[in-house]
Amino acid sequence: MEPHRTEGRDLRSAARTDESPNVSIGKGLALVGRASGVGISAGFLTAAFTVGGLFLGIWVDRMLGTRPAFTLTFVLGSIPISLVVMVWFVLRNARRVGQAEQDKLSSAKEP
């Protein structure tokens, strides 16, 4: 039994040397929080474009006397536009979050 325990301790200590000493649960949760914020914002952008297209379509239909034509056009047209804007927004903010994390890590490593 005793050699097995010693062997297990050696494996655990070997695994610990590979881990970065700067990694902590709090930092990981902060990163998840920032990433979630980006995702929630992207969802609101998509909803805003769709609802905006709906209201704009209803308004144009009332002005021109056409019932569902512009409402359907604007709602269906807002979907691909909102997807493009959402992808752009997520990529831009993901780069910012990643760069901020790299800056924090590099500043922590420098004496």
Instruction: Estimate what percentage of residues fall within beta strands.
Output: under 5%
Helicity range: over 70%
- The tally of helices reads 3
**How far is it from the N-terminal to the C-terminal residue, by CA?**
45 Å
What features would you describe in this structure?
Helix 2 runs antiparallel to helix 3. The protein contains three helices and no strands. It starts with a helix and ends with a helix. The model has no long low-confidence stretch (mean pLDDT 79). It has one domain. The protein has 111 residues and is an all-alpha fold. 88% of the residues lie in helices and 0% in strands.
Keywords for this entry:
88% helix; single chain; 111 residues; 0% strand; mainly alpha
Outline the fold blueprint.
Elements: H1 2-18, H2 25-64, H3 69-109
Compact overview of the structure:
This protein is mainly α and 111 residues long. It has three helices and no strands.
